[in-house]
Design brief:
51% strand, single chain, six-stranded mixed β-sheet, SH3 type barrels, mainly beta
Length: 67
C-alpha cells in the first residue's frame, strides 16, 4: 500500500528525502516558497538547495527526487 501524494504546503523539516532509486539523501531542513501565493521554490536538504522541479513525489514524511 502506497501513501497518497500531498501538497508542498504539508512538507515539514525533518521529512526524509530519497533519490529516484529510493536511496536516502538527507532530511528537509527548510521549505522555500510563499505560502500565501502558493509559490514553491524548493527545499534545503542537509544544507543543499533542491529546486521544486527536481521533486518527483511528495507523500507524508517523504520526498522523492527525480534525479
Amino acid at each position: 500500500m502506497t501513501a497518497d501524494p500531498v501538497s508542498w504546503l504539508m512538507i515539514e523539516p525533518g521529512w526524509i528525502v530519497v533519490d529516484k532509486n529510493g536511496k536516502r539523501v538527507g532530511k528537509v531542513k527548510e521549505v522555500l516558497g510563499e505560502r500565501e501565493a502558493d509559490i514553491w521554490d524548493g527545499l534545503t536538504v542537509s544544507g543543499d538547495y533542491v529546486p521544486a522541479e527536481d521533486v518527483a513525489e511528495i507523500v507524508e514524511g517523504r520526498i522523492t527526487l527525480s534525479r
